[in-house]
């Protein structure tokens, strides 16, 4: 992106395009695994606080991290292999802001349906299973929270979980909408909308994550409030 802005050259080599596609989609697969890991962490912290350090040991967390990364590699590698072995003999212009899988698949001269189906089914299974486990963990968390006698403890637990739910909504909703629209609604949904959806789930979550999590911290809220008051009132005097 920096190269495009500095030089104005929007070209990318064949190998670099597929490398970019691989790492972009692998990173999104890792992110959904991290959201599941966060949900499990919140479940243990709220429902089994006295056993937290005994359950989520360094060894367990290392195993979870390796499993998340391995799952992403095992899912994305066949997808990249299927697409890279298709012949590309027509247009070499990717109608997208980056080398997104469905956009690159449309440039193939052969039938890209196996690759597209694999992407759709694989994404649905990964996201569907993660969302199911996350929902189950939050149902158990809510049951535990509403059995707490302290209203302050309830408020803190719900605040922690609320920020997590907000991050998940920002990631899953545009992400899955992008996948299904690109596959099922490509003839009915305007192409610029498809591009926008694909960009949103990459840009919005990392942009808003610091705000969502940061505003939960009292000191950060106070500093932001004092800065806003200074900008609005002190400068106007």
From TrEMBL:
Organism: Fukomys damarensis
Name the record gives this protein: Olfactory receptor 52I1
Entries under Gene3D superfamilies matching the protein: Rhodopsin 7-helix transmembrane proteins
Molecular-function GO term, any one: G protein-coupled receptor activity
PANTHER family noted in UniProt: OLFACTORY RECEPTOR 52I1-RELATED, OLFACTORY RECEPTOR 56B1-RELATED
Boundaries of every G-protein coupled receptors family 1 profile domain copy: 1-213
Topology in membrane: Multi-pass membrane protein
Pfam family for this entry, one: 7tm_4
Primary location recorded for the protein, binned into one broad class: membrane
GO annotation, cellular component aspect: plasma membrane
Membrane-spanning segments: 20-40, 60-83, 120-146, 167-185, 191-215
Subcellular localization, as worded in the UniProt entry: Cell membrane
Keyword Transmembrane helix among record annotations: yes
Key words of the record: Cell membrane, G-protein coupled receptor, Membrane, Olfaction, Receptor, Sensory transduction, Transducer, Transmembrane, Transmembrane helix
InterPro entries reported in the protein's UniProt record: GPCR_Rhodpsn (IPR000276), GPCR_Rhodpsn_7TM (IPR017452), Olfact_rcpt (IPR000725), OR51/52/56-like (IPR050402)
């Amino acid at each position: 992106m920096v190269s495009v802005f500095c030089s104005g050259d929007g070209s990318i080599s064949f190998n670099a395009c597929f490398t970019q596609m691989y790492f972009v989609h692998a990173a999104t697969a890792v992110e959904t695994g991290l959201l599941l890991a966060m949900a499990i962490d919140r479940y243990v912290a709220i429902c089994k606080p006295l056993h937290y350090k005994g359950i989520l040991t360094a060894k367990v967390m290392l195993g979870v991290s390796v499993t998340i990364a391995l799952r992403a590699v095992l899912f994305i590698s066949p997808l990249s292999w299927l697409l890279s072995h298709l012949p590309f003999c027509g247009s070499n212009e990717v109608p997208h802001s980056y080398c997104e899988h469905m956009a690159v698949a449309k440039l193939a001269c052969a039938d890209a349906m196996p690759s597209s189906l694999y992407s759709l089914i694989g994404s649905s299974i990964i996201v569907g299973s993660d969302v199911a486990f996350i929902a189950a963990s939050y149902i158990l968390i809510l049951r535990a929270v509403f059995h707490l006698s302290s209203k302050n403890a309830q408020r803190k637990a719900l605040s922690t979980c609320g920020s997590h739910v907000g991050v998940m909504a920002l990631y899953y909703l545009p992400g899955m909408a992008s996948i299904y629209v690109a596959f099922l609604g490509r003839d009915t949904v305007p192409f610029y909308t498809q591009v926008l959806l694909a960009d949103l789930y990459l840009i919005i979550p990392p942009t808003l994550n610091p705000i969502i999590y940061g505003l939960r911290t009292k000191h950060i809220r106070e500093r932001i409030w004092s800065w806003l008051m200074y900008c609005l009132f002190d400068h106007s005097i």
